[in-house]
Specification:
Layout: E1 15-16, E2 34-38, H1 40-57, E3 63-68, H2 73-81, E4 87-92, E5 95-98, E6 105-108, E7 119-127, H3 131-142, E8 147-155, E9 168-173, E10 196-199
Parallel strand pairs: 1-9, 3-4, 3-7, 7-8, 8-9
Antiparallel strand pairs: 2-10, 5-6
Helix pairs in contact: 1-2
Length: 204
Amino acid sequence: MNLARIDQPRINQTTINQPTISQPGISPAGAEPLRQVISEEQIQKRVKELARNICSDYRGQTVQVLAVLENAFIFVADLVRAMDVPTVCQFIKPKYNRQTAGDVMEIFFGHPAEIRGQHILLVEGLVHSGVTTDFLMAGLRARGAGSVKLVTLLDRQSARRVALQPDYFGFLVDDAFLVGYGLGATEQTNRNMPFLAAPTQPLV
């Protein structure tokens, strides 16, 4: 199993185990009320910190930023605008095919343009089990990328199923379900909220 390389000391961890602010969220009529877990101010401060660390590591190089849709779309927009090194932005969306016989899932990606020798920064909104992310990073390395690093806004390490460690992460989270700042509910709502929130009652 490929293990994500860490080429520099890890960024100081920011752990969010309890909501820092309790207030009603934005949710459709009749939907489960939400509580704010990570504020807009916390997110923006952390994104700028991540950008500074990334730029320090990539100084003098062009970064091929590859964002995984849909969860990363707001995060990557704020991240690259805070970066002052040359960047090329591309996007990728995984497609899944769950086979009827047995618990087997195939993962398909429409790969970006030629990446041989390029420095790839994979951007995720949330790393959960790590299976999809690990699969994608292994594929990028196999295609000859000069380097592959991973940045994720949210890291749920307690759910990890593979030996995967992000090179950069924003917040460690324990909440089973979060929405906002690009992350959507089951019905794809709430991605536009500027903060991250969780249901006030556990989902059944």
